[in-house]
Design brief:
Chain B: It is an enzyme of class 2 (transferase). The complex is a heterodimer. By secondary structure, chain A is α+β, with helices and mostly antiparallel strands. Chain A is built from 13 helices and 10 strands. The chains are: A alpha+beta, B alpha+beta.
């Protein structure tokens, strides 16, 4: 007989059934959670919960409901609050290790948001690089995360007047999804700023779309180069972007803006969730560490057809996506190229990889345009 | 002392902070849920841990529907209807024609009490069907149940159904292990149900762990069908081509009774009480949970200006032949009883039989270029 530690009603009810009877059928599954979760592990963790009541079944529901994805290896589990990564360590540590290149439970993560430490990056060839973008996420300490937070929490975590004190290059306006005029909505769509209620079953199954569009909104500066999404897949998504190849400027604005936003939240007594092991704590384990994806939309029609393209990207620690984002395929030889890593490298290091890597990819593209071989340009594994 | 950690955690926020924004909403829940009711009920949870926010999530996430007035709340277990009476009573009253908290519901599954119904004109009536749902006592409902519970329900259901004989002898097809051939056959027979895509159902959590412990059982004759663990624990369907509703209803009642006996033997009878009859996931299905209907050709009557009025007076409703979310095609309509609670199964099927008969007469009259003004019925 299993020792019942919980007094939680819903968990007690499930304890009427054995671990075997409750253990999900993962035989057709292929995601990080399914690779890691054994019956024994399920048995040990199934009667635990965080202080806010997030349980193992809550953590894994999205991975049970979504066996796999055609383009990417999905994570299959989410955090409902900061404590999740601790209470369910036994599951999340191996998921993190598998996802983040062998990152160990004892490893320390380095944060570096000083743009001066970036070398170069202001001159990626605009004949090839159409746009540059850096995004990350932030969670507000003391509040539950999107899979689990209540309506009250969503409002309390982000006081919308907060960003109105930003000035200079960052001066801007908040648009609540709920109260947008048709005109504002159309403009945001034209600017490619508007985010919509998630349709991905990965997100829906984890409960992130509850109460939509309550307390969701978009803030952007007047220059349209700095954008904050509120209460979408994370508490905050912060995005710096512009046309062309000046990644240095994009990253500088990114760091400056983030630092200012962080100061604003601190003034209100709120900090970002961060610890020295996982770095910035976010909803999806794949975004831990820096939560940073820095990338460009770049024309590589010749290189992308080269049989070493995949290998080159891998060695540069980069990944490709279609220009519609993570769930899309490339169109017209234009690819979204970004850093593959999130955890175990600092922000500066990751953006440096993108800058250096894209520079090399463009060189290769030019070489292939001239009908020459790129064999001597193939890099070593970074 | 049992607790609900998540619900307790939310109590840190005031009612004002947690109360949903229902300004753009138009469903039964949003009409009934005042701030006062929310305040009174938000700290409660059923013995299995189902809360007010759990009940209303689907209605908060889905403000309205283009064709139908949705309910906007669900039960997670039998006790939901009691613990959250303050919300469910007004919703039930609004949805079920003024049904009061003190009213008693009558169950009558004696098919011999149905008058006629064996001869609806097959030139007009293409098929006849009766469906209902049943919940198994001792388990929580689809929005809330765990994998262990769902599998328990499936196990009991398979045992009950596999013991049936004669006209009810049949086979169970679990969604998970179906062969391609079986799947194609079930699709061709229009028996297969798929993972729900309706946001109404998804938001209520009914599709969790799909397709685990879901399946379809049908008799060899393909006239009696049971869905396991879809929107309710069991959905029971009796059907056949043509207009012999009496036969469909007989098979329905006999089959249901046999199944119930087996569940009772295992001390897991059907959820039922004398106030709301059969207890089901959606408040709209309380009482009989019964929808008895036909697919019938009414190309002329359906374009008559009084068509809607006639249906209302006959206590019938129309749907497209694809089901609740569809529009009709080619003048063929799905006509069924509108009521579920406050009248018995026999009474509801009688309304369908008598009402469809009348509408066919009207259709024939209109075909001959006659008027139907003297045939318009009084409100039933």
């Amino acid at each position: 007989p299993e020792k019942i530690r919980t007094k939680e009603k819903a968990l007690l009810m499930k304890m009427n059934y054995s671990a075997e009877q409750e253990f999900p059928d993962l035989s057709k599954h292929n995601n990080h959670m399914a690779k890691v979760l054994t019956l024994d592990m399920y048995e040990r963790l199934r009667d635990k919960e965080t202080s806010s009541g997030f349980t193992l079944d809550d953590v894994i529901q999205t991975g049970v409901d979504n066996p796999g994805h055609p383009f990417i290896m999905t994570v299959g589990c989410v955090a409902g609050d900061e404590e999740t990564y601790d209470v369910f360590k036994e599951l999340l540590d191996p998921v993190i290790e598998d996802r983040h290149g062998g990152y160990k439970p004892t490893d320390k993560h380095k944060t570096d948001l000083n743009p001066e430490n970036l070398q170069g990056g202001d001159d990626l060839d605009p004949n090839y690089v159409l746009s540059s973008r850096v995004r990350t996420g932030r969670s507000i300490h003391g509040f539950c995360l999107p899979p689990h937070c209540s309506r009250g929490e969503r409002h309390a975590a982000f006081p919308s007047e907060g960003l109105s004190v930003l000035d200079g290059d960052l001066k801007g306006k908040y648009y609540a999804l709920k109260n947008m005029t048709e005109e504002e909505q159309q403009q945001l769509i034209d600017d490619h700023f508007l985010f919509d209620k998630p349709v991905s079953p990965l997100l829906l199954a984890s409960g992130m779309a509850r109460d939509w569009p309550d307390a969701r909104g978009i803030w952007h500066n007047d220059n349209k180069t700095f954008l904050v999404w509120v209460n979408e897949e994370d508490h905050l998504r912060v995005i710096s972007m512009q046309k062309g190849g000046n990644m240095r400027e994009v990253f500088t604005r990114f760091c400056t803006g983030l630092t200012k936003i962080e100061a604003l939240f601190k003034e209100k007594g709120h900090e970002f969730m961060w610890n020295e092991h996982l770095g910035y704590v976010l909803t999806c384990p794949s975004n831990l560490g820096t939560g940073l994806r820095a990338g460009v939309h770049v024309k590589l029609p010749n290189l992308s057809k080269h049989d070493k393209f995949g290998e080159v990207l891998k060695r540069l620690r980069l990944q490709k996506r279609g220009t519609g984002g993570v769930d899309t395929a490339a169109v017209g030889g234009v690819f979204d190229i970004s850093n593959a890593d999130r955890l175990g490298f600092s922000e500066v290091e990751l953006v440096q990889m993108v800058v250096d890597g894209v520079n090399l990819l463009i060189e290769m593209e030019k070489q292939l345009e001239n009908g020459e071989s790129i064999d001597d340009l193939i890099p070593d594994q970074k | 002392m049992t607790k609900n950690c998540h619900n307790d955690y939310k109590m840190k926020f005031s009612t004002d902070e947690e109360y949903p924004d229902l300004l753009k909403h138009n469903n039964h829940m949003s009409k009934a849920l005042t701030r006062e009711i929310y305040d009174k009920l938000r700290s409660k949870s059923t013995p299995s841990g189902f809360t007010l926010d759990d009940c209303i999530q689907t209605g908060v996430d889905n403000p309205g529907h283009p064709f139908i007035m949705t309910v906007g709340c669900v039960a997670g277990d039998e006790e939901s209807y009691e613990v959250f009476k303050g919300l469910f009573d007004p919703v039930i009253s609004d949805r079920h024609g003024g049904y009061k908290p003190t009213d008693k519901h009558k169950t009558d599954l004696n098919f011999e009490n149905l008058k006629g119904g064996d001869d609806l004109d097959p030139n007009y009536v293409l098929s006849s069907r009766v469906r209902t749902g049943r919940s198994i006592k001792g388990f929580t409902l689809p929005p809330h149940n765990s994998r262990g519970e769902r599998r328990g329900i499936e196990r009991l259901s398979i045992e009950a159904l596999n013991s049936l004989e004669g006209e009810f002898k049949g086979k169970y097809y679990p969604l998970k292990d179906m062969t391609e051939k079986e799947q194609e056959q079930l699709i061709a027979d229009h028996f297969l149900f798929d993972k729900p895509i309706s946001p109404l159902l998804l938001a209520a959590g009914m599709a969790r762990d799909w397709p685990d412990a879901r399946g379809i059982w049908h008799n060899d004759n393909k006239t009696f069908l049971v869905w396991v663990n879809e929107e309710d624990h069991l959905r029971v369907i009796s059907m056949q081509k043509g207009g012999n509703m009496k036969e469909v209803f007989r098979r329905f009642c006999v089959g249901l009774k046999k199944i119930e006996e087996i569940f009772k033997k295992h001390n897991h009878g059907f959820m039922w009480n004398e106030h709301i009859g059969y207890v089901l996931t959606c408040p709209s299905n309380l009482g009989t949970g019964l929808r008895g209907g036909v697919h019938v050709k009414l190309p002329k009557l359906s374009t008559h200006p009084k068509f809607e009025e006639i249906l209302t007076r006959l206590r019938l409703q129309k749907r497209g032949t694809g089901g609740v979310d569809t529009a009709s095609v080619g003048g063929v309509f799905d006509i069924s009883n509108a009521d579920r609670l406050g009248s018995s199964e026999v009474e509801q099927v009688q309304l369908v039989v008598d009402g469809v008969k009348l509408m066919i007469e009207m259709e024939k009259k209109l075909e001959k270029g006659g008027s139907i003004d003297d045939m318009i019925p009084a409100q039933k």
